[in-house]
Amino acid sequence: MSAIVLALLVLAASGAGYQLIGRVRDVARLPPPGRLVDVGNGRRLHLHCMGAGQPDVKPDTVARADVEPAVIFDAGIAASSLSWSRVQPAVAAFAQACSYDRPGLAWSDAIPGPLTAARLAHLLHALVAAAAIPPPFVLVAHSFGTFVVRAFAHAYPTDVAGLVLVDPIYPSEWIDMTAAGRRRLRGGACLSRVGAALAAVGFVRLCLTLLVAGSTAVPGRVSRMFGSEAATTLRRLVGEVQKLPPELWPAVAAHWSRPKCFVAMARHLSGLPRSAREIAATGSLGAMPLVVITAASQPPAVREEHARIARLSSRGRHVIAGAGGHWIHLDQPDVVVRAIRDVIEMARHGAPDGSESATQDSGSVTRD
């Protein structure tokens, strides 16, 4: 055995030991904020509920707790329940608010089988049933999560009181991809699998530890090794994570130090075209209360696609955030909270009188 091979084996073994020690430490210091719910075959998904119906909340602090539907949050493709930390507590003031982690992400177990929108919707249905959360629900989702909740609304329409779609993706961008787009998607899945291998030997943990400590030199050089697009993506994701409350950064770093999160991301990415075809086949939402929120930074073509999604319901509304980018729930959480309130009101009484002018007067969103 050559000296180089031996050195690499020693380095990998040392890294794996560093990863194991770090993983044990993470389990002890970063327990799940919610509970792990068995959705079948011993597989557990993490569900974090707060607000109405929770034992640690006094009934007199929750308005109309006896009539409000529960609000269920679904995150973007590589995000977790933590991404709703600036919205969920505000919603918990007037309704039961529950966020969860999809299979393989954050505190949830990996689950075998395809991770497409329809499958994920069935798993979400199993989760809320096992957790004994009574329907109907207001489903709130960001980006890829909007595919999941739209699939849920199609499969279980009587269980859905309304939808809030935050800067949603849409089927045509994943069905009618160019050759370059297909290569990027395959490349993203491939890089995710490489990330899983690097996480297994502790390298990702080292880089994320440095990032949380404020050092970007080593992580930046590593990301540039995989091309300028990977480096740009890393900078963007770090910027979004930094919008979360600082006390959550260690949990985000701990999750992405584990191979399972990278594997889950690869599986989500690989299933995107199939998910898009599933959503394209769902059709009208009837009279279901619906608000679609578009980031101010989106170009006219995306705004038109979002307006088209809003027209899937006879009670659909399309609003454009007044500022910020794709992660509206971090840039302008009040816009999302207001949309949830509006959908609850529509579900209870129909569209509230004056709701359009109230939205316009807020200065946060404009009617499209």
Explain this structure:
This protein has 368 residues and is an alpha/beta fold. It has 2 domains: 236 residues, 3-Layer(aba) Sandwich (Rossmann fold); 94 residues, no CATH class. It contains 16 helices and 9 strands. A 9-stranded mixed β-sheet has the order 1-2-4-3-5-6-7-8-9, with helices on both faces. Helix 3 crosses helix 4, helix 7 packs antiparallel against helix 10 and helix 8 crosses helix 9. It is globular, with a radius of gyration of 21 Å.
Element layout with pairings:
Blueprint: H1 3-29, E1 35-38, E2 44-50, E3 70-74, H2 88-91, E4 97-100, H3 117-130, E5 137-142, H4 145-155, E6 160-166, H5 172-175, H6 179-200, H7 203-212, H8 217-225, H9 228-241, H10 249-255, H11 259-270, H12 272-280, E7 290-294, H13 300-310, E8 316-321, H14 328-331, H15 333-349, H16 355-362, E9 365-367
Parallel strand pairs: 3-4, 3-5, 5-6, 6-7, 7-8
Antiparallel strand pairs: 1-2, 2-4, 8-9
Helix pairs in contact: 3-4, 6-11, 7-10, 8-9
